[in-house]
Amino acid sequence: MQIVRENPTVRDNPAGSWSEPHVTTLLETLPIGVVVLDADGSIVDANPRAETVLGLTRSEITTRVYDDPTWEILDADGDPIPATELPFARVTATGEAIFEYEHGIRWPDRSERWLSINAAPLNSGDENIDRVVAIITDLTDRRAHLEAIERQNEQLAAFASIVSHDLRNPLSVASGHLELLNEECRSEHVEPIDRALRRMEALISDLLSLARSGASIGELEAVDLTTLVTTCWSVVSTLDATLEIQTNRSVHADRTRLEQLVENLLRNAIEHGGNDVSVVIEELPDGFAIADDGPGIPEQQRETLFDLRDPTDEDDVRFGLRIVKQIADAHGWDVRVTDSDHGGARFELTGVTFGATQ
After folding, report:
1. How many CB atoms are closer than 10 A to CB 288?
2. Higher pLDDT, 1 or 289
3. Which residues are registered as beta bridge partners of 236?
4. 290-323 burial, b if ≥16 CB within 10 A, otherwise e?
5. Which CATH number does 140-214 carry?
6. How far is CA 248 from each of CA 224, 242, 351, rounded to the nearest angstrom?
7. 3-state SS, residue 249
8. Helix, strand or coil, per DSSP, at residue 317
9. What's residue 222's pLDDT?
10. Nearest CA among 210, 211, 206, 204 for reference residue 170
11. Which are the contacts of 268, defined by CB distance < 8 A and separation ≥ 6?
């Protein structure tokens, strides 16, 4: 767009289209659509990519105006956009460029395309706008993909809610009867049953978190790591486990989702390191790490550690670690596992943006 504006042939000869050879070659081969409109909003030229994006030949495009009645211009909710709000009208009214203006086009056959428009004025040396050049990017496939993911997530969340309800009812009954049984008789079999029921409850909670939250995050804020980790530790720790926090930093994160991430890593340390595990929160140059002195994780298992299921053990469902990866990805962070200084597991979160030191 800037090349077109700066080119003297276009500036000095506003009545023509892109006749200068180098500019013509550039525009003809660009992978994005380019159209030129005159001062009254008529489209006077278009490159080949614009033909593909709009589904029209160049001659068909150049018989139209920017608010042509043969297409409906729609906002994100599918409602018509007034002509005065469209990029061409806003550029000619203000004399300023407009960027990443998204709208849809609905054709007479009810098919739709979704576009992102960058538009800027072309002047011939005075204050009058002789031309407006518009850069068109096709968002149709991306929008369809996002809508498909949204539908899939909605269906998954609905399925998870139904499953959790249908599982939690009999689970609650089983837990209640187990408590009564434990009052009536002491048996070495009660504890394993209770442990299995609590594991089922944890799996259901993780399933719901995975399905409902997905890969989305909310508003980012400065979150004090010490306060957040201490809160999470009070929820998941045992009497004999110990925690050491070696950072006083805050990080920019979605507080609720960061709590999920930290709780899952702390719970993972206790589950695999035992009730007397020692956990350390370490500061990294661009993030933080959660390390323990448990048995660690063999190097050959680390590539698939964040998969939903252990490929070598179908009974090992990893909702918790999958959620950790999902939350890290949503924040744009990297997560990897290494050995801690004491031979246990060390989960490193990097690419984190810090707030001010406390």
Report:
1. 22
2. 289
3. none
4. bbbbbebbeeeeeeebbeeeeeeeeeebbbbbbb
5. 1.10.287.130
6. 8, 18, 18
7. coil
8. strand
9. 94
10. 204
11. 320, 321, 345
Considering only residues 166 and 41, tell me which one the structure prediction assigns the higher pLDDT: 41
Q: Does position 13 have pLDDT exceeding 80, yes or no?
A: no
Tokens 């002195």 belong to: 293
Both tokens of residue 148? 């498909």
Looking up tokens 């800027």 gives 120
**Sequence-separated (6 or more) residues with CB below 8 Å from residue 144:** none
Tokens of 221: 């804020």
Single out the residue of 110, 109, 108, 134 nearest to residue 121, CA to CA: 134
Q: What is the mean pLDDT of residues 109-123?
A: 90
Per DSSP, helices labelled H in 237-292 are: 255-273
Which pLDDT score, from 0 to 100, does residue 163 have?
72
Burial of residue 189 (number of CB atoms within 10 Å: 0-12, 13-18, 19+)? exposed
**CB of 60 closer than 8 Å to CB of 38:** no
* Separation between Cα atoms, residue 236 and residue 267, nearest integer Å: 6
Condensed to tens digits (0 to 9), the pLDDT of residues 220-241 reads 999 999 999 999 998 887 788 9
Tokens of 157: 């969340």
Fold of the 218-358 domain: Heat Shock Protein 90 (3.30.565)
Each domain of the chain, given as residue ranges in start order, spans 2-138, 140-214, 218-358
Closest residue by Cα to residue 342 from 284, 258, 276 = 276
What string of DSSP letters covers 25-57? Answer: HHHHH-SSEEEEEETTSBEEEE-HHHHHHHTS-
Is residue 53 a contact partner of residue 138, using CB atoms and an 8 Å limit?
Answer: yes
Does residue 254 have a pLDDT over 70?
yes
The whole model's pTM is what?
Answer: 0.52
Q: Residue 108: pLDDT above 90?
A: no
Class of the CATH-defined domain 2-138: alpha beta
CA distance 236 to 17: 69
pLDDT of residue 119: 94
pLDDT given for residue 23 in this prediction? 63
Q: What average pLDDT is seen over the chain?
A: 83
